[in-house]
Amino acid sequence: MRDLLILVVAATLLPSTVSAQSGTSWLDRPMTAWNQLPTAVPSAQAGPESPGVLERRCGSSSLTASPAASAVRKAGWTPFLHFDRAIAQDGVEVIGGMIAAATPGCEPTTFNLFVFVGGRFAGTISPVVMGQGRDGVVGAVRVTGTDALTAEFARYTTKDTECCPSSRVRVTYRIDRAQPTLVPLDLRTLR
User: What is the pTM of this model?
Assistant: First the structure.
């Protein structure tokens, strides 16, 4: 019963389902730099579970000592490994943060991915929180060089089922290491 309540409350926190063709998603607009000189991880909104309870239920023991995980946790998010794997290369680390809600299987219902460079916060992978099975949810993330990163996003239409988005797009980011900032550069449709 508690898990059902969590899912119902979490569903009210999810971004609305938006048609990929409607032009209302951030992925339908020209790329803009939303990570303008970020200094701290943005604060999370409250969710149906307290962050401590959610972390005990779904947290990863490998994240407990990570400085990036500590920064995400301090901002009220529950840190997690995106697709259950660490993404870290050349001083770049990508860590997930979920708002205090997850499915019974511990999949985040609302979340974002946070990028750290040399241990300092550089920005978010998306300007908005994402939800599983929703338009604009992030998939594969790759560090492709010392100052480059890519992320793939699912594009759903109102006719798509949760399992099967109509298309995918790839956003390419540049990492400004001087003042760690993640800057979106380009968006390409993959399918």
Answer: 0.84
